Amino acid sequence: MSATLANPLNLLGMSRQRLAEQFERWGERGFRATQLVRWIHQRGVTDFSAMTDLSKALRQHLAAEAIVRPPEVALERGSDDGTVKWVMRLADGNAIETVFIPEDDRGTLCVSSQVGCALDCTFCSTAQQGFNRNLTADEIIGQIWMANRRLPVPEGRSRAVTNVVFMGMGEPLANFEALVEAIDLMLDDHAYGLSKRRVTVSTSGLVPALDRLGGVTDVALAVSLHAPNDELRDRLVPINRKYPIRELLQACRRYTRDGGHHHRVTFEYVLLAGINDQPEHAQQLIDLLREIPCKVNLIPFNPFPGAPFARPSLNAVRAFERLLAEAGFVTIVRRTRGDDIDAACGQLIGQVMDRSNRPARMIRLHAELPVQPGASA
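User: That's the sequence. What structure does it adopt?
Assistant: Structure tokens below.
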């Protein structure tokens, strides 16, 4: 059914294939989709009347039936280290957060995939906010569209955003269809033209969806592990109770082995003082990951109000890193970026009209975990 003026069709998040199908339903040639994708994503044009290589009749039809509408930027904050955080208002009144992290050789955009998060990871402030809904594909791709419009392009690059990581609000694999459509546009040479190794999907461990992902794309994979055994991970990442570590790692092996073309897995490990940062935890992690092509990102905990955790000492972080490195693992301690604007890993909160009764459940979960004293370097 065609869109109406009261309910226009947002074309921003539609892949080239879906646009071609839509054009054919309108009685237009499918190749017009390529032209439209270039106008929207490469040139940043939202006004159909400005798309001069489309016929006047088609432009009028598009203006009557469709729109190109990204999320509205409600707030922009810059960090002392160059990180930029945007709060983006959605049409239903919810808000999400998106973070840009500049480096000398890249510009990484951390995008959200849901309003809030339906998982209960106890060390993440997004989890405190509860969950409202999945983002649509246009709300996901709108984050990169907006960032490329607002950021300066460094000398020697064609665009500001060179890398995208699905590490913002939400569990990407719980929003599978919109995730895949957004990835299609990110990889499309007529849209953003990112290479597969520059797009990373992070998951807390939804095993069936991870297997589905391996069947449709081979973008980079990051797994939020955070514990080296089921007993501890059950408490920190409750989805582990449904898909325990053994099942998750088997899915990771399938992802890296199928066809021999997938990248190695990056395991994310938030270090919590006195909880999962001891030498015995490092040794368990070494034993656990020994047979999997991977690297390990260690993330010192980024505090937020009410969290029952503390950041470990610098000595503890270095000792943990050293044990992994000596065992032959590529190990990186992630440098905290944007914590002065609450844009660091685990600090994104947005504005969520919670439908999950999360605050009460989080209080019960926190009661299971001892509050750890802070540790200085």
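The longest strand covers residues 95-102.
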